[in-house]
Amino acid sequence: MGIATVNPATGEVVKTFEALSDAEIDSKVAIAQAAFLQYRQTSFEQRSQWLQAAAAILEAEKDRLGALITLEMGKTLKSAIAEVEKCAVVCRFYAEQGAQFLADEAIASDASHSFIRYQPLGIILAVMPWNFPFWQVFRFAAPALMAGNVGLLKHASNVPQCALAIADVIRQAGFPDGVFQALLMDSSKVAALMADDRIKAATLTGSEPAGASLAIAAGKNIKKVVLELGGSDPFIVLPSADLQAAAATAVTSRMLNCGQTCISAKRFIVANSIADEFEKLLIAEYEQLKVGDPMLPETDLGPLSTSNILEDIDRQVQAIVQQGARILMGGTRLDRPGNYYQPTLITDIADDNSLGREEFFGPVGLLFRVADINQAIALANNTPFGLGSSAWTNDPAEQEQLIDDIEAGCVFINGMVKSDPRLPFGGTKRSGFGRELGVHGIHEFVNIKTIWVK
Fold it and tell me: Which residues are designated catalytic?
């Protein structure tokens, strides 16, 4: 169904939208280009004030905006409100740190005076997903706007009201007209946008095929692109770990956003000597989960975002079982309106079961048993993805080995993988390239200009 709000909890079509025509898209690009020529001259102090104002609006409107997120993509209201609050945090972070991150940087050379100046590129196209419809956008927008760029948002087609609400927050914060616009358009139009000389770079968070498509268009037009794609994150547990804490965190991570997050723990990789005990602890944590109406405070898991995602996760579960795996818990849809799926735990996954290396984008955890740390790391790396990873051990030597040898954009020891405005975020292998957040994130979309004066 085109561009529409469809309530995942009921299947009700709430509101539909007309996609922009080619002429309307071109007009918005022209507005963005004109805005950039003025906006790039604004001071860091002024941009900081606008970002602080955006943060204040997000905090004041978090209940309303959170309810909109829940309506469009189904996450629990409490987690949706927390997402809006996190967007305020990233706005404040770059408002406070951006000028320092972008200050001229002296470099010694044979010149009398040489330094680096960071300058904005222009219009950045953001192709964003539905699973964190506010956070994914603001973690791009806050640094990009602080750097003096302007943004065009092509959001997922099932969260159009979130896209418009984000643009409205930025407008209400005082940013000049045209600095950030939402484009309600079909994905088929993205390649043509990338060919437009006024678009200087792009960023995408989403699926591997979507990332490949954008990368092809960017490469054809020799433009910078940052990609954050899928993940099949390992969650390694070794004998010295606090097993109770590890099990609780494993389930929290796996079920975050009803399992619809790239950096959730997807493969529990556990040493044989503690595997039986850890399995019991996992099951106990699973049994406490409450599936239901995402608007209710007691609900832990709401519906999956779309009926297609529900069908995909069910098909994956049935396929991995057909290849010999065993279901410990769950494994079926819930017989009720909406896109609900049981929290599921699967084990006995053979080495040649290719589905054990894939991404399950839903409330499904895979449990593996290994002999030792070397086998754990080998299994963790036996996937085309390399986004996040979590490893649990209190042995310093094992910690160092895990840090060095896991192939991922981040390694969290004795903690849950999360994105944090202070830390660079991104992946390796088929999980994408480039970084968001931290100082590295704000430097992705600037011209790093070398200045040499004799």
Answer: 228, 262
